[in-house]
Structure formats: C-alpha cells, structure tokens
Write a structure and sequence with these properties.
With 273 residues, the protein is α/β, with parallel strands linked by helices. It contains 8 helices and 11 strands. The chain has helices at residues 43-51, 53-66, 82-89, 101-109, 144-154, 168-179, 200-210, 235-256; strands at residues 13-15, 18-20, 27-28, 72-76, 93-97, 113-115, 129-135, 155-166, 196-197, 213-219, 266-272. Strands 6-5-4-7-8-11-10 form a 7-stranded mixed sheet, with helices on both faces. Strands 1-2-3-9 form a 4-stranded antiparallel sheet, with no helix packed on it. Helix 2 packs across helix 3 and helix 5 (144-154) packs across helix 7 (200-210). It is globular. It starts with 12 loop residues before the first strand and ends with a strand. The structure holds zinc ion.
C-alpha cells in the first residue's frame, strides 16, 4: 500500500495514471522517479538566476521584515546559489541543500556550504536556523512530509519557512486543456507536473502536520518572461504578457472567493515555528 508522501494519508485513489490523496489532495506518481529536472543547455542560469531574481528578492523582503537583524538562512534546493547570493548580500549567514551534483558544485564554487543529501537525511543541527526557503522543491522530493518535519526541527522557535510551489489546482486543469489539443497549433505546453503535485490544501495540511503555525498561502507572481520556453511559437514576450494578465485574474478570483480559491500557477506559503 502506498501512503501519501505529504501527509501520510493511507488510501490514495488512482487518477489518470497518478494517485490522489483523499486526505490532503496531493496528486503524485505511484513510483518516485529520482531524475532531476533536465532543461535545454543554457536555460539553467536563466531559470535559477535571471527569471527568479524578483521572486527571490520578494522572499528576502518578507523574511528581512521578520528578521531585521538577519540570522541564519537555509535554502533547500539551492541550485547554483542564486537565492543564497542575494541573501548573503543582504546580511544573512546562508547555507544550502542541493542533490544535483553539478549545481551543488557551482554553489560551493561561489563560496557556500552545501549539503548534498535530502534535508531529512542531511544531519543538520536542530534549532539552528532563523529562516528556511524552499523554491519549487517540495514537488521534486521523494518525502516532502518528512522534509517539512525536519525543516521544522532545524528552525529556531519563531523561525520562518518561505516556500514557492507549483499549484496543482492550476496545472492539472491546464493539462486537461492540453490533452484536448487546444494549444497544439501554438506548440505550447504550459502545464508543469512533477512527482508530487500540491494544491494549496496539501501544502497547508503537510505544514500543519509538521508542527507549523500561522500558515499563510497566496498566489505567487509569475517568473519573469518564459524561462522554461513552454510558450513555443507564442514567443517570450507574448507568453510573459499572458502570464502577468493571468496572475491578476487569479488574484481577482482569490479576492472574489474570500481567499478560498487559488487559481494562480504557483503559490507562496509562509509559516512559523
Ligand atoms: Zn496527503
């Protein structure tokens, strides 16, 4: 029997080749595939450093307001160190976790300490960190529930987690539209599915079970431009414009539903220990 890797729910139901947890709504692959994301050559730097710079900056603004004197920050899934560089420049003492050896090498070459084991197996010192950042990594973890519990343990009392994650509510709906062939003339494949696909409820329940409080979830702004080249012949500028327009529409839906419906393509979740 397969249990939900986010909340431990015992009885997931089949859903189009995937499994769906009846307790938290996580949609996940029956067998975890360890393969990391593989992007076309040269896209990596654009994704990790360029397109996400504004999102990193927003995260550091929020964490900086909570910790005006800074402190220790752990970036889980730190890639080549884009967020760590920005955080260090703002006075944080930073270290990271990265399973991809080539990316971890780059981050270390930039001067950062990087653990190469899953965070729940890394043996990092508990009660040490003021902040933990998790950018689109829960979706790629084998055991995101165990990782959340470990992140809770690693934080000091009052410590904060700041995570950005793809919104499965959006991407599963988009995948259904793709399957209908609507986007085919444009060569566009905008839906993004991973091993673990989180709706807002799955993120909330997973963090609650880990012990976090004051869990807040909102739609994220999109990445700048079209770094993943999912827009095909629509091109970078038009894809970027559609993404921004869609973000404002998702915000309108969120407001109109009194914060119940998250239509954004990605979510930001913050919580406290
Ligand atoms: Zn679950």
């Amino acid at each position: 029997m397969t249990c939900c890797p986010a909340c431990g729910g015992p009885d997931p139901a089949p859903r189009g080749g995937l499994l769906e947890c009846g307790d938290c709504g996580l949609v996940f692959t029956p067998v975890f595939s360890v393969s990391p994301a593989v992007y076309a050559p040269g896209l990596e730097e654009g994704i990790y450093d360029g397109a996400k710079a504004a999102l990193f900056s927003e995260a550091l603004d929020i964490l900086g307001a909570a910790f005006p004197r800074r402190g220790r920050l752990l970036d889980i899934g730190c890639a080549s160190g884009g967020l760590m560089k920005s955080a260090a420049a703002r006075g944080w003492e930073v270290s990271g976790v990265e399973l991809d050896a080539a990316l971890a090498d780059k981050a270390e070459a930039a001067g950062f300490e990087v653990s190469r084991r899953p965070v729940e197996e890394a043996g990092l010192p508990p009660g040490t960190y003021d902040a933990a950042t998790v950018f689109e990594v829960f979706s790629q973890m084998e055991k995101p529930g165990a990782a959340s519990a470990e992140i809770f343990r690693l934080l000091k009392p009052g410590g904060r987690i700041y995570a950005r994650e793809f919104n499965a509510g959006f991407h599963l709906a988009l995948r259904r539209i793709e399957m209908s062939g609507l986007f085919r003339p444009f060569g566009a494949y905008p839906s993004v599915l991973h091993d673990r696909n989180f709706r807002a409820a799955a993120l909330r329940i997973m963090l609650e079970r880990a012990g976090f409080r004051n869990i807040r979830i909102r739609n994220s702004r999109p990445t700048a431009g079209d770094p993943y080249r999912t827009g095909g012949r629509l091109g970078g500028l038009l894809t970027a414009a559609i993404k921004v327009l869609y973000y404002y529409m998702a915000q309108a839906v969120w407001l109109a539903s009194f914060g119940r419906i998250y239509a954004g393509s990605a979510l930001i979740v913050t919580a406290e220990k």
